Amino acid sequence: MSLPCGIRNYNYAQDMAIFRTKTHWGMLIVFLVLLFTVPPLTFNHLWLNTVNTIGITLIATLGLNILVGYCGQLSIGHAGFIAVGAYTSAILTNRFDMPFLVGLIAAGVVAGCVGIIFGLPSVRVKGFYLAITTIAAQFIIIWVINHWGLTGGFEGISVPYASIGGLVFDSDVKQFYLVMVIVLMAVFVAKNLMRTKVGRAFIAIRDNDLAAEVMGINVNYYKLLAFFIGCFFAGIAGALLAHTTYYLNAEQFSFTDSILYIGMIIIGGLGTTIGPMLGVTLVKIIQKVLLPIYMVPWLENSITSLPAGFATGLAPIVFGLIIVLFLILEPRGLAHRWNLFKAAYRLWPFSY
Amino acid sequence: MDQLLQYVITGLSVGMVYALIALGFVLIWKSSSVANLALGQIVLLSSWFTYSMLVQANLPPIVALPIVIIFALCLGWVIERFALRPLIAQPILSLIAVTLGIGYFIEGVITFIWPWSVDALPTLFPQEVVHIGPAVISQEYLWVIGICLAVFVLLTLFFRFHRMGVAMRATADDQMAVQACGIPVTRVFSMSWMLACVVAAIGGVLISSIGGITHGLVNTGLKAFSVVILGGLDSFVGALVAGPIIGLLETLGGGYLTPYMWGGVRDVIPFIIIIIVMVIKPFGLFGEKRIERI
Amino acid sequence: MKNKKLLIINSIICVALLVVALPFLSACGGGEDTAGKTLKVGIMTPTTGIAAEKGVPLRDANMDCIAYINTELGGINGYQIEAINLDSQYKADQAVTNINQFMDQGCLFFTTSASAEMSWVQEIANRAGFPGLVCYSSPSNYHPPQHIYGQMPDYGDDWTAFAQYYLDNIWQGTGKPKMALMLLNNSTGAGAKNAAMAMADAMGIEIIAMEEHAATTISEMESLTRVSAMNPDVIYISSTPQPTSIIIKEAKNIGLYPNVTIGVCHAAMTKALVDLGGADIIEGVYGVFPTIVSWDEDAPAVVKMKEYAQNLHPNDVNNGDYIAAWAQSLIIAEILRKTLDAVGYDVLAKGDAESWAAIEQYGFQGLDGYDVGGLQSPVNYVAGDNRLGKSLRINRVTNGVITAITGWVEAPLIKYEDYDWFGN
Questions:
Q1: Minimal Cα–Cα distance from C135 to chain A, Å?
Q2: Contact C423 A246 (CB under 8 A)
Q3: What is the dihedral of CA C198, C203, C207, C212, to 10 degrees?
Q4: Which H, E and C letters describe chain A, residue by residue?
Q5: pLDDT(C26) > 70
Q6: pLDDT tens readout for residues C157-213
Q7: How high is the pLDDT of residue B223?
Q8: How far is C242 from chain B (nearest CA, A)?
Q9: Considering Cα of C209, then C212, then C213, then C215, what sign does the dihedral take?
Q10: Least enclosed by CB within 10 Å: which of B67, B125, C72, C415?
Q11: What pLDDT sits at residue A1?
């Protein structure tokens, strides 16, 4: 099902390749060319910012997906780890005048280490217990950020433009390229990491951690590694967030966002790489464009006696409903639908 | 010394509020092993509904409060029937995520109907304070403690003696076996959610009659998780004991640590306790230790 | 026949003249050609999201007032104000999108409602030289002063004004009065804290405690017990209505109030505080407020504001935020008028850095005591002080109603940027 008709593999490398046929490669190249030309040349600020936000959120959710979707360690405090990354980069570049790249890498590493600290209970507990621990992590992280002098406290901290060498990313078009290059790297890493020994260990732990341990997998090591990798991605996303909004305060990293990150990978499909892409794109387009620009004004014009909280209440209602409905009706998410579509497309006109 | 007494009394009374909310959580966990993360939102929704009945519809409390109870029963039934039942036997991740989704949805509904963020419930209890030595306690909190104990006793008796209560305990133990014995498992689930929502509604009405209805009730719900973690997820006694402990640690910690630490330390103490308990004694003080088999 | 030919020639000439003159005639109707020429202003409000409760009346008032200026006052010297209203959702990424759109669409300057919204975009605006006006400001918005201006005094000024009033009118004892601060754990509390740290010594007030609380608090007995042990003379609460009501109620329970004076900041000094706490308990509490508190007050702008609110947004009648945003729009108009008078429309038509500089130089910095229809303190610019309105009124809850007890009291400028702890 996953292979087009008439394609055979003659060696292991061919069997393992992600892009197997000339058509695959052609489509990839066309996609990349379109990705790097169409948005920056044709989109207005609204859409370009939406695309940038999608990119940044995608990096964070790829990490969350490794943690939750592949390794089965539920984390509901992802916004907290993103905050750690954002503030790390902000502090290094603003207070210590470090270059952006140092801030970016440090953001990932620091967030990853904080992730390990709060992931320590995962050695002993799982499921709901771990979920509560990560919620606690979020609140503790935000408290520290609000009170530690270096972070600027409640007033917040300003962040300089990202710059590499002499290139300053001071407009959303330039930031688009920065974000997209890192997104591609993140997708590449996430996709391939799961095809290595580490990824297989994660999946074994997710499916049954006791069985995995019996098979000789060092469960504790891999659980903490999953926390490090997942939060490393979150930290990178946070650093990019900091350098595209230029100003941070702790209100930007709410518990609601953490829930929405979980929602995005559920909608997209847990334990797949295409899943977060689809989920994030869908949710962010609904959140940033569809609801505020099209749906709310249209509904307000067509229905006269709407309650006053209508515009505000709509987004949580829609996303809450989407999360619940996906869990009930399509627990494998959009990724599964995408696979079905691919299979149908390949086998057309024969439906078997 | 006077301060210490005041801290203890305040801590105990606030802790009972947490305990009351925690009881609603334990109720569901005990019968269906579902972690209800939408607890705070259910508390908030029932508070706003009470507001509608008491203030907007201007009903007397004797009429309004039974309506609130009926509303809570319906709410519990709806949540279980339409969101939880299709997910029976799904992995725990789905069950946790679905309650998060429900919570998010309820928040939207609340904004939809009651777009202003804060309002006052009419006072249900006398306002005079009671003096215990040099310390004071508001009478409202005495009522909260009394009602919390009553709910605890009722729930314990219900689970100990009532047919449905016994069925709930049995269901929690082994769903398959219970179903084979002819006990309607779905009705057990539905019943436990309805009861849990009633407990949450009682908690909501009590807290918001003291401090007003605000979005903060959702966070109070989150703090109640530290109570169930410390007390054990499936123990009513645990909730009742851990609630005051958390409350005490909060006020004592806040009272004596604040001068030496960053401000607002009191508000993160429950969360720090969660982390500590997780590492030291993950199944809590009274929780049942589950042995895992492959 | 001759006559007929003449008639035809005459009529042709007439028609030709008419056709040629028509544009001139219609143009000359207004004296100057202003049709289709607008002055673009970007207005950002948190219309949806967690701050929607305040954002909706703010948006309504801005739009209503600009409609009033455009229709009844004929715009600014005949030029219509084109208000581009965007919703920030009270989210940083959305606010950034919005300010980029404002700059793209050639807005002359922009406004935000909340200090948080401004904090998310102020770096962009300052780097581009795009002037902004923030309604509810915090000191970090314009310290050090750059291109962002505050419409009203901030939470720090609340504290200074109240402290000065307390020293002058309430404090009877000798020596320094002992003050305890109860602070909300966000910029509302931080504003008062910073002001107290900067000014308390100089003013002669001893700060004995700075207690922090969360917006979600259900009991503050613990911190009040600690405060009570230090025998304060006055408690200042910089918070929102719900925590404030809890603190005052429990202060009463513990026997602190009404023996000590309680002052609250402008975020708490609303009708919600009286409703939540109960009129008998809140009675006698002092609070500062930067605009008028009642819709029945005798201020020139109230008449039109009432009329528009009743016709267009009856839900907003008696809302305090509506007053603030109405005042904001009046200031927007004044800024545009000042700049138009100084540089003419051609400079403003560009909507680029040159227009922004002109707006800032002649509009913002040209404000010289405009009275804002009596809705708030008069606005004027003093070099180095980006607060346009500098004065507050002290109010007191009397018989369950918030009543002004002073005129406009000026809060002195605090140079936060001179203190090395600011922003650290």
A1: 17
A2: no
A3: -50
A4: CCCCCCCCCCCHHHHHCCCCCHHHHHHHHHHHHHHHHHHHHHCCHHHHHHHHHHHHHHHHHHHHHHHHHHCCCCCCCHHHHHHHHHHHHHHHHHCCCCCHHHHHHHHHHHHHHHHHHHHHHHHCCCCHHHHHHHHHHHHHHHHHHHHCHHHCHHHCEECCCEEECCEEECCHHHHHHHHHHHHHHHHHHHHHHCCCHHHHHHHHHHHCHHHHHHCCCCHHHHHHHHHHHHHHHHHHHHHHHHHHHCEECHHHCCHHHHHHHHHHHHHHCCCCCHHHHHHHHHHHHHHHHHHHHHHHHHHHHHCCCCCCCHHHHHHHHHHHHHHHHHHHHCCCHHHHHHHHHHHHHHHCCCCC
A5: no
A6: 999 999 999 999 999 888 899 999 999 988 888 889 989 999 999 899 999 999 989
A7: 86
A8: 7
A9: positive
A10: C72
A11: 45
The CA-based angle C408-C410-C414, given to 5 degrees, is 155
Same fold, C38-152+298-389 and C156-289+410-418: yes
HSE-CB of B234 using CA atoms within 13 angstroms: 19
- Please check whether the domain covering C38-152+298-389 is classified as CATH 3.40.50.720: no
Q: What CATH architecture does domain C156-289+410-418 belong to?
A: 3-Layer(aba) Sandwich (3.40)
Mean pLDDT, range B230-254, rounded to an integer? 91
Q: Is the pLDDT of residue A112 over 90?
A: yes
A294 has a chain C CB within 8 A of its CB: no
Domain boundaries, chain B: 2-280
C255 at the B interface (CB within 8 A)? yes
Residue C29 pLDDT grade (very low, low, confident, very high; cuts 50, 70, 90) = very low
pLDDT for residue A308 is more than 80: no
> Average pLDDT of B131-158?
89
Q: Say what the alpha-carbon torsion angle A107, A264, B74, B26 is, to the nearest 10 degrees.
A: -40
Could B263 and C211 be called an inter-chain contact, meaning their C-beta atoms sit closer than 8 Å? yes
Cβ pairs B/C, distance under 8 A: 100
Question: Tens digits of per-residue pLDDT, B261-294?
Answer: 887 888 899 999 999 998 888 888 888 777 666 5
- From CA C394, how far away is CA C289, in angstroms rounded? 7
How large is the ipTM?
A: 0.91
* Cβ neighbours of C220 in B, within 8 Å: none
* Residue of B13, B21, B16, B15 lying closest to B202 (CA atoms): B21
Coil vs helix vs strand at C385: strand
Amino acid identity, position C37? K
DSSP code for B83:
I
**pLDDT, mean over chain B:** 89
CA-CA distance, B209 to C71, in Å (whole number)? 47
Q: Name the pLDDT band for A2 (thresholds 50, 70, 90).
A: low
Q: What tokens does A340 get?
A: 């079905």
Q: What is the pTM of this model?
A: 0.90
The answer as to whether A272 is a domain residue is: yes
In a domain, A331, yes or no: no
Q: Which residues of C touch A309 (CB under 8 A)?
A: 52
Q: How confident is the model at residue A352 (pLDDT cuts 50, 70, 90)?
A: low
Which helix (H) or strand (E) covers residue C102, if one does?
helix C92-104
Name the residue range of residue A214's domain.
43-276
Q: To 5 degrees, how large is the angle CA C298–CA C299–CA C300?
A: 125
Q: Which helix (H) or strand (E) holds C83?
A: strand C80-87
With CA atoms as reference, the chain A residue closest to C87 would be A292
Token pair for C203: 């003013």
What is the average pLDDT across C60-69? 93
Based on the number of CB atoms within 10 Å of its own CB, is C170 exposed (0-12), middle (13-18) or buried (19 or more)? middle
Residue B215 and residue C216: Cβ atoms within 8 Å?
A: yes
* Residue B289: DSSP 8-state: P
Inspect the interface and report whether the beta carbons of A154 and C186 lie closer than 8 Å: yes
- Compare CB distances from C222 to B10, B119, B216 and report the shortest one's residue: B10
More confident residue, B134 or A175: A175
